[in-house]
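Researcher: I'm preparing a figure for a lab meeting and need a structural model of a single chain. I don't have an experimental structure, so a prediction will have to do for now. The sequence is pasted below. Please return the structure as C-alpha cells so I can convert it later.
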Amino acid sequence: MTIGSEAPAVSDAVAAGDSVAAFERARAAALRAKRLQAGLGGLCFLAALAASIEVGEVSLATLVDGLPGFGNYLNDIAPRLRGDHLAADLAEWYWDLGRWLGLLWDTVLIAFAGTLLGIAGALLLCFPASGNLQDNRWIYFAARRLAEVARAVPELVYALIFVFAFGLGPLAGALAIAVHSAGALAKLFSEVNENVAPGPIEGVRAAGGGWLQGIRYGVIPQVLPDYLSYGLLRFEINVRSASVIGFVGAGGIGQELMFVIREFIYTDVSAIVVLILITVSIIDISCERLRHRLIGREAPA
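Model: Understood. Here is the structure written out cell by cell.
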C-alpha cells in the first residue's frame, strides 16, 4: 500500500473520531439538561408538598392523638349483635328498613335522571368543543369554557343553588348532578371525538353531506362504544354523589343520613352507611359488567 492511499484512510478515521466525539458531547449536554430539569422538577414538587402540609395543617401527632376518638365513634355507631339473638338485633338495627330502601331508590333515580340529562348536555357541547370538528374558533372556545364552568363547580354547590331556587327535594339534586356531569362528560366526549379517523367524515362531506351529517354518519358510529362506557362510569360516580348532595336538602338517603348524624342516632348512622355501601357496590359491579359487554360486542372480530 502506498503512502497516498493511506492518507484518505487516516482522514476518514479522524473524521469518524470527530463525529463520535461530537455525538458524545451532545449526549452529555442532553443528559445534563435532563438532570437539571429533573432536579428543578423535584425541588418544585418538594416545595409544593411542604406548602400543602403547612396550609393543610397536616400533623402526625394530631393524627395519632385523634385515633382513639375515631375508634370511639366507630364503637358508638356499631350495632349490638349477639349470636343467640341475631335476628332480633338485626331487626332492631334496621327498624326503618322499608323507608330507608325507598330513600335509597330515590337516590338511584336522582343519579339516573341527572346522568341522562348530563349526557344530553354533553352531546350538545362535545361536538362544538372538538377541534377537528369545529372550524369556528369562537364557537370552539365558548363550548370549551362552558364545559369547564359546568364541571369546575362541585355538585354540592350546585345543589345549594338549586335548593335555594327550587326548594328542598330531588329536583335540586338531579339538576346539580346533571350540570356537573354535562361538563365532565363533554370533556371526555370531545377528546374521544378528536381521536376519530377522518376518513369517514371526509367521505360524508365529499358525498354532499353537511356538518350534521358528518357527525351523524362519520363520527357517532366510531365513538358510540366509548360514549356508552363513559356514560355508565359517570352513572356509578353519580350514585355516590347523589348520596352526598342530600346533606344540603337535595333529596334521597343523604338527607336522612345528615338528620341522624345531627341527632346523634348512632346505630342508624351505621345502618344507613352499610346500605349505601351495598347499593353502590351492586351498581358498580353491574355497570362494570355491562360496560365490558358493550365494549366486547363492539370489538372487531
